[in-house]
């Protein structure tokens, strides 16, 4: 344990010192973390012994905090701005992506049941804000493009949660006479409890925060823990009483962003730093554990599905959803390409491991393969293509 801790700490220390050097070129954080996990594990320096439950707890907690932070930071006014691009991507592009993933699954995996293919399509639909950070934080990329991708990635994983819960409920209750009714009841229960928990705890926290501010009882050092604590509280409480912790974190984040206004940026700083630390550990564990274990299961069909998931299944719906906008073809292709798959897909994949399905191994291997390719390809292309677009804009 101490050797693993020392190796991980040494990597974090080194990366923190030279991060600007790494990320200014072809590499980005998640790619470096995943490769570090692969290399350190292959050389024997890192010998992680985390089990499935430990990995699940780590990934779920990371996603809950990321969901809360993304939702809090989300500027819902942007949904209608810039020709409604984020709204187009979420309401048109996302459903088409799920449908496209299901159809491609029918073609490549005809032996897998239809509902399980739908689960795979949902798992691979949400995009990752952290993997796209090199794009959404790059001033060379036009502001409407950056804002649209940022809002899309911040909201689509929260939207996919109830859809995934629906399909999983149908799989679990498939033996009953009225599976749809039972599935809807289960999903509504999880959504309702999750939403109520998120609203109740966030509103109560905001009220207590106002009282504390009025009496000047706050201390800057401890106030940084308010929103991270709220995110974990919403998630853990909803999970404990039978609701969806992810919905609770997502709804709580949206309400916190509205209630706290501009003050949220200062309060969120610690939450985002905490999420970054957990993300590093998750990506290193993904590289050290998930990829080596799944590698032998990567068939030709799985590699092809993963590649199509990152290209045709994502890009075609984006091109359709952006019809009628003022963007040129290359910019639309850029928006379509930068839909990286990451943390949400990893968490959703861990969630389905305990669900009785015929093709669990194939679904898990396909998801891991897609995330691996996404981290690699999006990490290598983000900065060069962003720079190309920036030069193109300057010339015009």
TrEMBL record:
Membrane-spanning intervals of the chain: 29-46, 89-109, 154-174, 186-206, 226-256, 277-296, 302-322, 334-353, 359-380
Top-level taxon in the UniProt lineage: Bacteria
Membrane topology category: Multi-pass membrane protein
Residues annotated as domain Cation/H+ exchanger transmembrane: 9-386
Keywords for this protein: Antiport, Ion transport, Membrane, Transmembrane, Transmembrane helix, Transport
Chief location of this protein within or outside the cell: membrane
Keyword Metal-binding: no
Pfam families linked: Na_H_Exchanger
Localisation: Cell membrane
Protein name: Cation:proton antiporter
